[in-house]
């Protein structure tokens, strides 16, 4: 019975944890790294086709984004997630696949001109659609008997629609240990979604620390603060551009915009228009509307009961096609533009930045965490010039950060969540935070509760029976990096090698089958080899 840390260890993105007991292999999250990495990540220790189950805490790409790649590499197990997370992954993973395909096509055009070899995308739409067929949608708070020796329960983490902490009971040779994976913990008192649920006991806690060394400012009334920024921008005749994550943050901003309209907080520009320029955001908003009863908090439900949609209002416009998107920047009327991605690394937001960053009358408003090294982080930290689509853009727009709007709990609320435990855990592992935040929060846990706490490196492995470290991970810095969590298919030959590895894992699973079936399988393999052995 072991737990190995693979991703988002002393880093913020790319969450992935490996659990093994008996002959069962489990992943908790399978996320994509976003922005620069600090440490080399350990590879998944078994072939993808040997993974039996994946449990997804929530739909954000840094927790789910490599599931199609896992499928591409042979995974055919089950993926457990809440119903809302399943719905969101269905659109987000397909969107991510389109991005992978688009970027590969763009790079290959350059490669062909330079006479360089072409690449294949990390994964494609078929991989995204394929892995979705393996999802099992779960209800909050139900104890699910996954297989012999494994039970899990999803409880609301208050971070995103459908987000969860996962309680996991593992039994091996008569010994049961309980693991608690926090997922990303919400800060509480959020619009639309519920507050985090507290869990009262666990042997091992694996918890996030995004803001483990920071305390958020006292939350302002966001609608009032947002109205002030809008008034300042519109008075100058500029646009308010908001890079926002398509899932979660966009819907919260719409909630505040509706309040500004209905409460008359911006009388000078009462008829302002808001453009949501992201097909993914539009689809995600529909998912929000479909999961009202399970996920909305009491205030949002009360509005629904009154016949009021909490995230719709007069003047809301959506852009789906690229032509719709282009027309936004030909309209000279001051407006709000909500577009993805939230860290400005991809998507339509980069086009809107190109058209607005050089304008001293416009404002770019950040409302979410920015990973160091991303374009969003650079803008927020005073970049005077940026490069977009091969063109250098001078930054003259007003760059604003609205503090306190965060989907992640700060140090105080992380402490409060951990304080929900009624009995001391055997160990607390602190993950999903920059190194300074993770190490600092691990030390804070020791001082506050007296718990044994540790910020693991990728590759650290622990025996869950004894609690002892049985393998130390690499401390190798990313500059020496040769591969990530597991290798993307960069050539068609790589795909062939991966297919061969999957075949071997299937063969191993055949042990104990009837001799007649084994012989038939062997004949089929040999026939295939005869055809291709040249």
Describe the protein.
With 534 residues, the protein is an alpha/beta fold. It has 16 helices and 23 strands. The strands form four sheets. An eight-stranded mixed β-sheet has the order 6-5-4-3-2-1-22-23. Strands 7-8-9-10-11-20-21 form a seven-stranded mixed β-sheet, with helices on one face. Strands 14-13-15-12-16-19 form a six-stranded parallel β-sheet, with helices on both faces. It is globular and about 80 Å long. The two termini are 44 Å apart.
In terms of structural class, how would the helical and strand content be classed?
alpha/beta
Number of domains: 3
CATH superfamily membership of the largest domain: Ribonuclease Z/Hydroxyacylglutathione hydrolase-like
| Intertermini distance | 44 Å
- Mind telling me the C-alpha Rg? 24 Å
Beta-strand share of residues: 15-25%
Provide the spatial order of strands within the biggest beta sheet. 6-5-4-3-2-1-22-23
What is the CATH-assigned architecture of the largest domain? Answer: 4-Layer Sandwich
Count the beta strands.
23
Return the average pLDDT rounded to an integer: 90
What is the CATH topology assignment of the largest domain?
A: Metallo-beta-lactamase, Chain A
Residue runs with pLDDT of under 50 for 5 or more positions: 480-485
Taking the sheet with the most strands, its summary is:
8 strands, mixed
Highest CATH level, the class of the largest domain: Alpha Beta
């Amino acid at each position: 019975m072991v737990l190995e840390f693979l991703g988002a260890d002393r880093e913020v993105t790319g969450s992935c944890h490996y659990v093994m007991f008996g002959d069962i292999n489990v992943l908790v999250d399978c996320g994509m790294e976003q922005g620069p990495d600090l440490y080399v990540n350990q590879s998944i220790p078994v072939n993808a086709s040997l993974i039996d189950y994946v449990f997804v805490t929530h739909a954000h790409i840094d927790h789910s984004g490599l599931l199609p790649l896992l499928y591409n590499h042979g995974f055919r197990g089950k993926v457990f997630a809440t119903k809302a997370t399943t719905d969101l992954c269905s659109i987000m993973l397909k969107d991510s696949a389109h991005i992978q395909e688009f970027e590969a096509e763009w790079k290959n055009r350059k490669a062909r001109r330079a006479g360089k070899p072409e690449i294949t995308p990390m994964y494609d739409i078929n991989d995204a659609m394929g892995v979705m067929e393996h999802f099992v949608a779960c209800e909050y708070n139900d104890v699910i008997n996954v297989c012999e020796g494994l039970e899990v329960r999803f409880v609301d983490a208050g971070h995103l629609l459908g987000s969860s902490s996962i309680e996991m009971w593992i039994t091996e040779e008569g010994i049961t240990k309980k693991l608690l994976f926090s997922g990303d913990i919400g800060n509480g008192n959020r619009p639309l979604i519920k507050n985090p649920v507290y869990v009262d006991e666990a042997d091992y806690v694996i918890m996030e620390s995004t803001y483990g060394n920071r305390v958020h400012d006292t939350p302002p009334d966001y609608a009032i603060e947002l109205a002030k920024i809008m008034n300042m921008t519109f008075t100058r005749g500029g646009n308010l551009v908001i890079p926002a994550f398509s899932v979660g943050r966009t819907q919260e901003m719409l909630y505040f915009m509706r309040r500004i309209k209905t409460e008359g907080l911006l009388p000078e520009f009462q008829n302002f228009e808001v453009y949501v320029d992201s097909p993914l955001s539009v689809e995600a908003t529909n998912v929000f509307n479909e999961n009202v009863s399970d996920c909305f908090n009491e205030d949002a439900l009360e509005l629904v009961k009154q016949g009021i949609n909490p995230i719709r209002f007069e003047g809301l416009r959506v852009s789906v096609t690229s032509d719709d998107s282009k027309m936004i920047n030909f309209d000279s009327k001051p407006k709000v533009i909500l577009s993805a991605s939230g860290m400005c690394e991809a998507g339509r937001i980069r086009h809107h930045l190109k058209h607005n960053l050089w304008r001293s009358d416009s404002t770019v408003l950040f409302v979410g965490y920015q990973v160091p090294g991303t374009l969003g982080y650079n803008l927020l930290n005073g970049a005077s010039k940026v490069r977009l689509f091969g063109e250098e853009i001078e930054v003259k727009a007003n760059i604003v950060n609205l503090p306190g709007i965060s989907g992640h709990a700060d140090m105080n609320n992380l402490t409060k969540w951990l304080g929900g435990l009624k009995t001391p855990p055997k160990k607390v592992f602190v993950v999903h935070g920059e190194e300074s935040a993770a190490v600092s929060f691990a030390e804070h846990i020791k001082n506050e509760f007296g718990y044994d706490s540790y910020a693991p490196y990728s590759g650290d492995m622990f025996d869950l029976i004894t609690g002892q470290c049985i393998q130390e991970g690499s401390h190798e810095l990313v500059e020496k990096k040769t591969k990530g969590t597991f290798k993307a298919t960069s050539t068609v030959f790589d795909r062939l090698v991966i297919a061969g590895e999957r075949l071997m894992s299937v063969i191993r699973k055949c042990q104990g089958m009837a001799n007649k079936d084994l012989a038939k399988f062997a004949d089929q393999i040999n026939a295939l080899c005869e055809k291709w052995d040249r």
